[in-house]
Design the sequence.
C-alpha cells in the first residue's frame, strides 16, 4: 500500500464500483489519484445482479477477461412472476441482441468490488482501505480536500483539486450540504439472505434474475442464483410494513416468503444461510450532481430501487462519465461545477426511464406479460431497458402507451362488480 501523500489531483471517496471505476479512469489519464474505502477490503455488499450494458464500462476498465474467467454465473435474462404465481415468458437478452454484450453476470460483491479496487491500483491510483473520510473540506463553496482517519487511527489532511464522492448511501457530500432528498413514494425496506441448494434454472444457457410478487402485492421478492450453488433471495416492501410491529426481520421474511408461492417453492429443501440483512429507505436523489471542486457518482448521487438491478450499472456508468469530465478539468484547470457536472443532465434524463419503469412496477397493475401481449411493438424497448440501454434513442417511447395502459388497468380494478 503506497504511503499517503499530502496532496493529490483527485481524491475519490468509496471503494465500491463507482469509486473504483472513477479512480481507475482518472489515474489512467496520468493524474494523481487517492482512492479511500472506509471498510477493510474485501467487504460484503448487496447488489449481486448486473445489467448487461455494464459491458462497455468493463471493456474500458480492462476487466472483461477477468469476468469471463471468473466463477460468476452468466446472467442471460429476466423473468417476472405475478401475485397469482403466473410466470411471464423469460426476457432472454440474446434473443434481442446476439452480441456478447447482451449478457452479464450475477456476482459476489465482495469478490467483484475487490477486483475493481485492485484494478484501480493497477491503473495507478493510490488505494487505501480501512480509511475513513471524517470530513470533506471546503473553502467557501469549493471543495479543497478531505480529512482522513487511517487504519491506525492517525488523522491526515489531504489537499486536492477535485473530490469525487462515491461513498454510496453514506452520501457524504450530499448530507453535508443538505441536498439529499428521500423519495416519499419509495420509502422501501429490504430483507434478504442466501440459500444453498435452492432451485436453479439454467435453461437458456445461464441463470436469470426472477422478480416475484407476494399474493397480496404488498411485497416482492428477488431471486438471484449465484456461484457455489447459492441463491440470493430478498424481500422488498414499504418500510413501515416490513420493519415496524410485525416481529423480527427474520420472522417477517418468513411471513412474506409464505405469501410468495414462486419464491417459497424454489427454496424448499434448501439450506438458509445465517446471513440475514436489512436495508431501509434506500430510494433518494440529490438536488445537484456537482459543485466547484466536487462531483457525485453512483449511490452518492442517488438510488432509484433494486427491482431492475440498475444500481451497479448506474454506478459504473456515472463514474465513467464523471471521470472523463474530471480528467478534462484537471488538464485544463477548470474544476467548476459546470465542467465537473457536464455529464449530469443527459444521465439524469436517461435514468428517468428506469425511474418510470419502477413507478409502473409499484402501481400494482404492471403485468409485464399482459402489456407485451397487447403492445408487442414495445417488447424491444422493454428489453432494452432491462438490458440497461437507457441512452438508446426512442427507448422511452414505450411510456406513451404504458402510462395510459396502466391508467386503464387501475380504472378497471376500481369499477364496482
Sequence:
Amino acid at each position: 500500500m503506497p504511503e499517503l501523500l499530502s496532496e493529490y489531483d483527485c481524491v475519490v471517496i468509496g471503494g465500491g464500483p463507482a469509486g473504483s471505476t472513477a479512480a481507475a479512469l482518472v489515474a489512467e489519464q496520468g493524474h494523481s489519484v487517492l482512492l479511500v474505502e472506509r471498510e477493510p477490503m474485501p467487504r460484503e455488499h448487496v447488489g449481486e445482479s448486473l445489467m448487461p450494458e455494464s459491458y462497455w464500462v468493463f471493456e474500458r476498465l480492462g476487466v472483461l477477461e477477468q469476468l469471463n474467467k471468473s466463477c460468476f454465473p452468466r446472467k442471460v435474462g429476466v423473468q417476472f412472476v405475478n401475485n397469482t404465481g403466473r410466470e411471464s415468458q423469460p426476457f432472454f437478452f440474446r434473443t434481442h441482441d446476439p452480441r456478447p454484450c447482451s449478457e452479464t453476470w450475477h456476482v459476489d460483491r465482495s469478490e467483484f468490488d475487490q477486483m475493481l479496487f485492485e484494478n484501480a491500483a493497477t491503473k495507478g491510483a493510490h488505494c487505501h482501505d480501512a480509511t475513513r473520510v471524517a470530513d470533506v473540506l471546503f473553502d467557501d463553496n469549493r471543495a479543497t480536500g478531505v480529512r482522513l482517519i487511517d487504519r491506525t487511527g492517525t488523522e491526515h489532511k489531504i489537499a486536492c483539486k477535485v473530490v469525487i464522492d462515491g461513498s454510496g448511501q453514506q452520501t457524504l457530500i450530499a448530507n453535508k450540504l443538505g441536498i439529499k432528498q428521500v423519495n416519499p413514494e419509495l420509502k422501501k425496506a429490504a430483507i434478504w439472505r442466501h440459500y444453498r441448494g435452492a432451485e436453479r434454472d439454467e435453461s437458456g444457457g445461464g441463470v436469470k434474475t426472477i422478480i416475484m410478487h407476494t399474493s397480496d402485492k404488498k411485497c416482492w421478492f428477488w431471486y438471484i442464483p449465484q456461484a457455489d450453488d447459492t441463491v440470493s433471495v430478498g424481500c422488498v416492501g414499504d418500510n413501515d410494513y416490513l420493519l415496524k410491529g410485525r416481529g423480527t426481520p427474520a420472522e417477517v421474511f418468513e411471513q412474506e416468503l409464505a405469501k410468495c408461492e414462486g419464491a417459497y417453492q424454489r427454496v424448499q429443501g434448501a439450506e438458509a444461510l445465517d446471513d440475514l440483512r436489512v436495508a431501509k429507505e434506500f430510494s433518494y436523489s440529490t438536488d445537484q450532481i456537482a459543485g466547484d471542486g466536487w462531483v457525485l457518482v453512483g449511490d452518492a448521487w442517488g438510488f432509484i430501487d433494486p427491482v431492475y438491478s440498475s444500481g451497479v450499472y448506474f454506478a459504473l456508468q456515472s463514474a465513467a462519465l464523471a471521470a472523463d469530465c474530471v480528467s478534462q478539468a484537471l488538464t485544463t484547470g477548470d474544476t467548476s461545477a459546470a465542467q465537473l457536472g457536464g455529464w449530469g443532465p443527459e444521465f439524469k434524463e436517461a435514468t428517468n426511464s428506469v425511474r418510470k419503469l419502477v413507478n409502473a412496477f409499484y402501481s400494482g397493475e404492471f403485468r409485464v406479460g399482459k402489456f407485451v401481449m397487447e403492445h408487442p411493438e414495445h417488447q424491444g424497448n422493454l428489453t432494452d431497458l432491462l438490458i440497461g440501454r437507457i441512452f438508446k434513442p426512442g427507448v422511452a417511447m414505450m411510456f406513451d402507451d404504458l402510462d395510459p395502459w396502466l391508467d386503464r388497468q387501475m380504472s378497471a380494478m376500481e369499477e364496482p362488480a
In short: The first strand starts at residue 7 and ends at 13. Residues 363-414 form one domain. The two ends are 69 Å apart (CA to CA). Residues 41 and 129 are 6 Å apart (CA to CA).
